[in-house]
Write a structure and sequence with these properties.
about 270 residues; about 0% strand; mainly alpha
């Protein structure tokens, strides 16, 4: 199906409803887990003093809250895409939709404490681990595509590029080994060659930011657009590793604020063309 504006809007609305459904489902599961006593934090000493919530020490509640905020972010930003770009052609928005999908998949980590999967080797554990791996492979590639594959000359290749990104993330999620015997306090599982994969993800995101700066310079685009993109990308990196209230505030502020600012500047940029 060609990626027309109408098709993109339909896909965005579907993503919005999926995000809302996922958020409501997790809220219902949380209420059920708390009422039945199934809700289980990780086996780590928790900071109980109130002032620790405002320090940079690990608190499980900050990592847990961030998962709900990521799903709320996915619902809000996808709705904003529909409102701001209802009649505007933008390749960037298509790749950002893939980015939102990756953010929403972080929400499966909620299932770890809700179903006490910290020491479980079940199929659900495997699904959670591979869903997060899929999203964390897809998102850096989606950001890179926003930076280097969103020009007017790339619009005829958009379906091919989408399939390339989804295919790469699927292969990585299916083939890379996951150690389900260990769960991080943030609720995700170590991957095989995890350090190398993390470095590769950071380098791809850094390349996306640099490419965006270079494109803005040579194409005489607004540098405000690049600032919003950089804030979005950095916010995503911080949000993936939230461990304290400090990182929660910084990550969500950069991700949410950067996304809104970037989309605003992108919409203004296309209106000027």
């Amino acid at each position: 199906m060609p990626m027309t504006i109408k098709t993109r809007n339909y896909c965005t609305l579907i993503l919005f409803f999926c995000a809302v459904a996922a958020l409501l489902t997790n809220v219902i599961l949380l209420a059920y887990a708390i009422s039945t006593g199934q809700f289980t934090p990780p086996d780590l000493p928790q900071q109980r003093m109130l002032w620790h919530l405002y320090s940079n020490r690990y608190t499980f509640i900050s990592a847990f809250i961030s998962l709900f905020l990521l799903q709320l972010y996915g619902a809000a930003i996808s709705l904003y895409f529909v409102i701001a770009f209802e009649k505007t052609q933008s390749t960037e928005i298509v790749f950002l939709l893939l980015f939102v999908i990756g953010c929403l998949l972080e929400g499966v980590r909620v299932l770890i404490p809700l179903f006490n999967l910290w020491h479980s080797y079940s199929s659900l554990t495997q699904i959670c681990g591979r869903a997060v791996l899929f999203g964390r492979t897809l998102n850096p590639l989606a950001l890179l595509a926003v930076a280097i594959a969103s020009g007017p000359d790339q619009r005829q290749n958009i379906e091919r590029n989408i399939m390339l990104l989804l295919g790469t993330a699927t292969v990585a999620a299916a083939l890379l080994p996951i150690d389900i015997t260990h769960v991080s306090p943030q609720g995700f599982f170590p991957w095989g060659n995890g350090t190398s994969l993390s470095i590769a993800r950071m380098l791809i995101i850094l390349a996306a930011i640099i490419s965006q700066f270079v494109s803005a310079f040579w194409a005489d685009k607004l540098f405000r657009l690049t600032v919003g993109f950089a804030a979005l990308a950095i916010g995503y990196v911080v949000t993936c590793g939230i461990f304290s209230i400090t990182t929660l505030v910084i990550g969500i502020a950069l991700l949410g604020g950067g996304s809104v600012y970037y989309v605003q500047q992108l919409h203004r940029h296309y209106l000027w063309q």
